[in-house]
Amino acid sequence: MTRDLVLHDWLVAGIALAAGAAAGLLLRALLRWLGRHAARTRWQGDDIIVDALRTIAPGAALIAGAAVAGTTLPLTARVSGFVNQSLTALLILIATLSAARVVAGLVQSVAGARTGVAGSATIFVNITRIVVLVMGVLVALETLGVSIAPLVTALGVGGLAVALALQDTLANLFAGVHILASKTVQPGDYIRLTSGEEGYVVDINWRNTVVRNLSNNLVIIPNGRLARTNMTNFTQPEAQFSILVQVGVGYESDLEHVERVTLDVVGKVMAHVDGADPAHEGAVRFHTFADSRINFTVILGVGEFSDQYRIKHEFIKRLHERFRAEGISIPAPTRTVALHQDEVPGTPAPHPSVPPVPHQREAPPVPHQREAPPSMLADSGR
Prior knowledge:
The protein is of the alpha+beta class and 382 residues long. Helix content is 54%, strand content 13%. The chain contains ten helices and eight strands. The strands form two sheets. The protein has a five-stranded antiparallel sheet with strand order 4-3-2-1-5. A three-stranded antiparallel sheet has the order 6-8-7.
């Protein structure tokens, strides 16, 4: 110190710290009020920014009060420089955390707005957060006088070794980035793999893709496998698609009448059932002369993949009821089986109304027993 501390120095430093703390509390109350107003808007970006400022603003006010208090104390140039560097580095770290939160929140908001679902791809969120944090830490170290050139060199050499040891993990990471960048799969899409896994994409993170099937179970698929396999995306390029329902009517039915009735049922289902596509124009296509009926296909439109089961359910119920009212039959397959008895020569054929009587199997002949010689009978009588 350049001189001894007196009461006036402690008083001024205390006032500076108290002023910084009071400013921090005032800013926190102000940001809380701004947060309530930001929650009423449709844009999520203002909520993210206000939430990040709640962390940096009170901390910056307190650090500013500490810096003012340090200038009022009779410190040496070396101690004063160290205090200023430490407070600056601390302020940079707080600003870095707030910036990482803002950037990650904005990326998640943009991803959610593009996909139309609440969940988003966390791989981009995590990458941006890590990049911002690493840059902030390097700037803070540079502020403290630590040379970052050897550190960057060491990180480069160490990164090569880590890359060789974590080939599968890095392959999944870059596969996830490629999937999102190519826009082949987005969170909220319904996909089906050739191996049988299917469901809604919940999230694409740095290692795997999370899929929720219709049973509400989560299926975890590595990004590398997802990028290599054949896949059907039922949401791209649009969620609406057509489904086929197979129906059959008897040969005595008037096909023109059957077509009119079926299209009328299709129109009512498309207009009144939730999940149907109202703009879809139904179609009926006869295609097969089967054994006991004429088969045709009905083409229905649904809003998304999971709606097809409800649409099929309602359509089959209403079509069955309408066919019964119109007298249109849906015959079941029938078979006629003729049984013929083999004719035996010399045996009259049985009357058609009399069922054939099965023949009783004759008992096998009893083997002939030889009589015992008289000598043996005499011996037995003794």
